[in-house]
């Protein structure tokens, strides 16, 4: 509050010095539930406005705007006496002749074609760094498809190419859930100082019990032998091999895109040449992924951890070849506890040593190319 003691009303509010409450900034909203200002762009005010029987909407709120309730529900006409049947026609101005402003997003309730949910939950325009593909898009959701069993939906909306059109929406699927959905009531979103987003849920309908959870939105890396455009938040190139990585609090996920048809490997935190590095060797042999967890026993020599008395700690791996080369992906623990793996700390930077062979799948063939790079790990909150 810039003025007033302790209460003030901005003097340029639309109803100051005329009929109507001075506090009103905008109107025609039914049940606005969660709002946020865009941290970028034009710092616009995004509001999720809960509808009645049929349609949910999201509005960009402007001073003095009339958002149509109860003449309209979403983009549809609304009749309070017959709320399940949108009239074919309705006024396009309010009581004072002002235009009724359309939402930027509308979606229907379950039971209608394309039905998503019953209650829109406003979110944030994304400006974090973990999910670069989400930049400038609006992350929001729906509370639940029904009142009995929490079944919230995460949604992402993309701005239209021409102003005035609706934003397109897609469901955000949850990789860490078997159903790929929240399986809980979606209550709200949060944002941290880095503008990363959090999802607040509960398994109970009301504000009771201890079934509330807070999740952080992070990239979904799938170990499938394909590196998707927005799959990994980080990448670097070493001697023609593109290295992708992502880490959570427990594991590091790595994608290697090699110009060769032979093996490709990466060593973490080498001391001299490959000596002391935790080396992960990968190759696609006859269409199948082959991997080995090694240790740099000397500057130019490495051996399988299992042969040295350690363990193979590769948790998952996949790979594929095409005419351009080889793609492999794998997951290893940040700290396997094995003395032949280097423990990696979230938030720290490490040298990497990367090599590949143009044609040979044999892990004992001398590489075609080798070089050094650096990776920096994210410091995620405990999930
Ligand atoms: Ca993948
Ligand atoms: Ca190991
Ligand atoms: Ca190792």
Helix vs. strand class:
mainly beta
Q: Strand-and-helix sequence, N→C? A: EEEEEEEEEEEEEEEEEEEEHEEEE
Across the major sheet, the strand order is 20-19-18-17-23-24
Q: How many β-strands, per DSSP?
A: 24
How many angstroms separate the termini? Answer: 36 Å
Helix content: under 10%
Global shape: elongated
Main sheet properties: 6 strands, antiparallel
Explained architecture:
Helix content is 1%, strand content 38%. By secondary structure, the protein is mostly beta strands. The strands form six sheets. The chain has a six-stranded antiparallel β-sheet. A five-stranded antiparallel β-sheet has the order 14-15-16-22-21, with no helix packed on it. A four-stranded antiparallel β-sheet has the order 1-2-3-6, with no helix packed on it. It is elongated and about 85 Å long. The mean pLDDT is 94. Bound molecules: calcium ion (CA) (3 copies). The site of one calcium ion (CA) has 7 residues, from strand 19.
């Amino acid at each position: 509050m810039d003025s007033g003691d302790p209460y003030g009303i901005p003097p340029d509010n639309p109803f100051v010095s005329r009929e109507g409450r001075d506090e009103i900034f905008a109107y025609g909203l039914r049940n606005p539930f969660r709002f946020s200002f865009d941290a970028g762009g034009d710092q616009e005010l995004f509001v999720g406005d809960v509808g009645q029987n049929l349609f949910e909407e999201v509005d960009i709120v402007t001073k003095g705007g009339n958002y149509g309730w109860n003449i309209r529900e979403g983009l549809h006409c609304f009749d309070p006496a017959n709320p399940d049947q949108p009239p074919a026609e309705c006024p396009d101005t309010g009581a004072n002749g002002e235009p009724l402003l359309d939402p930027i997003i509308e979606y229907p309730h379950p039971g209608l074609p394309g039905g998503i949910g019953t209650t829109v939950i406003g979110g944030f325009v994304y400006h974090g760094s973990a999910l670069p593909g989400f930049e400038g898009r609006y992350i929001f959701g729906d509370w639940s498809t029904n009142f009995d069993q929490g079944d919230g939906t995460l949604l992402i909306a993309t701005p239209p190419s021409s102003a005035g059109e609706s934003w397109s929406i897609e469901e955000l699927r949850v990789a860490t859930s078997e159903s790929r959905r929240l399986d809980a009531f979606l209550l709200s979103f949060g944002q941290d100082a880095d503008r990363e987003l959090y999802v607040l849920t509960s398994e109970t309908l009301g504000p009771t019990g201890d079934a509330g959870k807070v999740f952080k939105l992070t990239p979904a890396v799938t170990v499938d032998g394909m590196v998707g455009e927005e799959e990994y938040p980080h990448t670097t190139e070493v001697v023609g091999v593109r290295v992708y990585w992502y880490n959570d609090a427990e594991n590091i996920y790595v994608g290697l895109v090699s110009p060769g048809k032979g093996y490709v490997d990466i060593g973490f935190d080498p001391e001299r040449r490959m000596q002391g590095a935790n080396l992960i060797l990968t190759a696609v042999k006859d269409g199948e992924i082959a991997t080995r967890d090694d240790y740099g026993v000397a500057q130019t020599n490495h051996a399988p951890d299992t042969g040295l008395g350690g363990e193979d700690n590769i948790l998952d791996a996949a790979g594929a070849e095409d005419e351009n080369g080889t793609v492999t992906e794998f997951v290893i623990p940040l700290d396997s506890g094995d003395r032949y793996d280097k423990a990696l700390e979230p938030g720290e930077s490490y040298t990497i040593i990367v090599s590949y062979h143009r044609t040979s799948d044999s892990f004992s063939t001398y590489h075609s190319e080798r070089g050094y790079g650096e990776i920096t790990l994210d410091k995620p909150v405990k999930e």
